[in-house]
Amino acid sequence: MTERLVLHEYAASGNCYKVRLTAALLGLELERREYDIMKGETRTPEFLAKVNANGRIPVLQVGDRSIPESNAACHFLADESALIPQDAFAHADMLRWMFWEQYNHEPNIATLRFWMGWVGVDKLSEAQRLQLPFKRQAGEDALKLMDEHLAERDWFVGDAVSLADVCLFAYTHVAGDAAFDLPTYPHLSAWLERLQALPRFIPLGA
Amino acid sequence: MTERLVLHEYAASGNCYKVRLTAALLGLELERREYDIMKGETRTPEFLAKVNANGRIPVLQVGDRSIPESNAACHFLADESALIPQDAFAHADMLRWMFWEQYNHEPNIATLRFWMGWVGVDKLSEAQRLQLPFKRQAGEDALKLMDEHLAERDWFVGDAVSLADVCLFAYTHVAGDAAFDLPTYPHLSAWLERLQALPRFIPLGA
């Protein structure tokens, strides 16, 4: 990477951590710029005009261009690295888990973590409160699917760590913040340990 | 493609149509196998064991292997074609729109279409009914973001059609089924026409 890389982020977000973790595993340097989402700092006119019209973090700035969406930012950083399989089927299979993460995992596990740890359950709207049991069940279903997939394999795709693992790790390893009981998923727990043992691994709080 | 391609699908689903449209634009042959999601045919023990443990369509079968997740299946089919830009930034930017589609567009526009056209608004649960105004607003926000992005460009990424356009087209062009007023988005409407004019384009009902 010859262009300057700046991560526009809220550090406690698992989606932002994905991008930092990908960079760390690849030995890439990132500048970091923090926005307080609880104070609406990603919805200001300036942020919407200059960083992301969608009003969300993370955004990876590459020189004077930007990539919103955490999993897309990870894909840019990992281009031509061992974190993206070269075979077309394996590449698509990796993306399959990354799309699944954004559709079936993040809206349940990350949203519950945010509602419980940031918003506060007593501050939820009626519409949100009624979704709690559905998100709880969908989150358990997601963890169960991952656990079963990992029963006979070390990594999500093929026999090596890929972005699928990195992107799924981000919110899975903090699912306890949303009162999911990770030790009840033994294969998932072993995979979390394998990922944390990778060279150059960094924790969420780093 | 030398391996047999079978699309496990529910034909009226925009997610399944994406895969058919990608194949058509590339001149690839797909066998099609229909499942009635309204009768639970994707949640049978056999489907969960043999097609997709996540209980969803589409699934693209490639020989004896399978790829769930519509956007990942499109990526497999389009590998090394002009529908995927070769430049690393443009590739990630394309994926950015495809992740955005699954997170910000599909759960609002496709879900409202399904609730209004298949489930029936009078059959919604209280939890679903309370989400209607939020999904309506988020759907309008998604269409507005697309319209603004297209104000000064013909395609979502670079200057040529890519999977970002194909995947976003699928549920956008039927947003009227969910009572979104597409003609109020002029740039988006022009883009829909551009996409429908592509050689080998096929409609949803084909």
UniProtKB/TrEMBL annotation, chains A, B:
<dbReference type="InterPro" id="IPR010987">
    <property type="entry name" value="Glutathione-S-Trfase_C-like"/>
</dbReference>
<dbReference type="InterPro" id="IPR036282">
    <property type="entry name" value="Glutathione-S-Trfase_C_sf"/>
</dbReference>
<dbReference type="InterPro" id="IPR036249">
    <property type="entry name" value="Thioredoxin-like_sf"/>
</dbReference>
<feature type="domain" description="GST N-terminal">
    <location>
        <begin position="3"/>
        <end position="85"/>
    </location>
</feature>
<feature type="domain" description="GST C-terminal">
    <location>
        <begin position="87"/>
        <end position="206"/>
    </location>
</feature>
<dbReference type="InterPro" id="IPR004045">
    <property type="entry name" value="Glutathione_S-Trfase_N"/>
</dbReference>
<protein>
    <submittedName>
        <fullName>Glutathione S-transferase family protein</fullName>
    </submittedName>
</protein>
<dbReference type="InterPro" id="IPR040079">
    <property type="entry name" value="Glutathione_S-Trfase"/>
</dbReference>
<dbReference type="InterPro" id="IPR004046">
    <property type="entry name" value="GST_C"/>
</dbReference>
<dbReference type="Pfam" id="PF00043">
    <property type="entry name" value="GST_C"/>
</dbReference>
<dbReference type="Pfam" id="PF02798">
    <property type="entry name" value="GST_N"/>
</dbReference>
<comment type="similarity">
    <text>Belongs to the GST superfamily.</text>
</comment>
